[in-house]
Design a protein that fits this description.
Mean pLDDT: 96
Distance between the termini: 40 Å
Order of helices and strands: EEEHEEEEEEE
Strand content: over 45%
Helix content: under 10%
Number of strands: 10
Shape: globular
Radius of gyration: 13 Å
Strand order of the largest sheet: 2-10-9-4-5-6
Number of helices: 1
């Protein structure tokens, strides 16, 4: 059964940090490319970061230098370390297989990140 479960969100002050986690089912994780995406209120979901099957990592310009994506192959987990958070990072964060364009139509419940100014 394909499943994505995000966790780790919360309320943080600007300049703070959070670490998000995503537990993916084996069938999803085995696709190789995994990414993080976010959707702010009233906006479309957007790509944040991803790594490819070959391990290449890329970030959206808006988070480059502040966010770090990583994974644990043994646990089928991916992570997003978010530092120097800004109010504009406030969104529901999701993980999915894929790169800039997510592969799967179905999404997990996401995890809410709220950054106060």
């Amino acid at each position: 059964q394909e499943q994505l479960v995000e966790s780790g969100g919360g309320l943080v002050q600007a300049g703070g940090s959070l670490r998000l986690s995503c537990a993916a089912s084996r069938s999803i994780f085995s696709l190789g490319a995994m990414g993080w995406y976010r959707q702010a209120p009233g906006k479309q979901r957007e790509w944040v970061a991803h790594f490819t099957r070959s391990g290449i990592i890329d970030y959206a310009d808006s988070v480059k230098g502040r966010f770090t994506i990583s994974k644990d192959d043994a646990k089928n987990m991916i992570y997003l370390q978010m530092n120097s958070l800004k109010p504009e990072d406030t969104a529901v964060y999701y993980c999915n297989a894929g790169g800039v364009v997510p592969l799967l139509r179905s999404w997990g419940q996401g995890t809410q990140v709220t950054v106060s100014s």
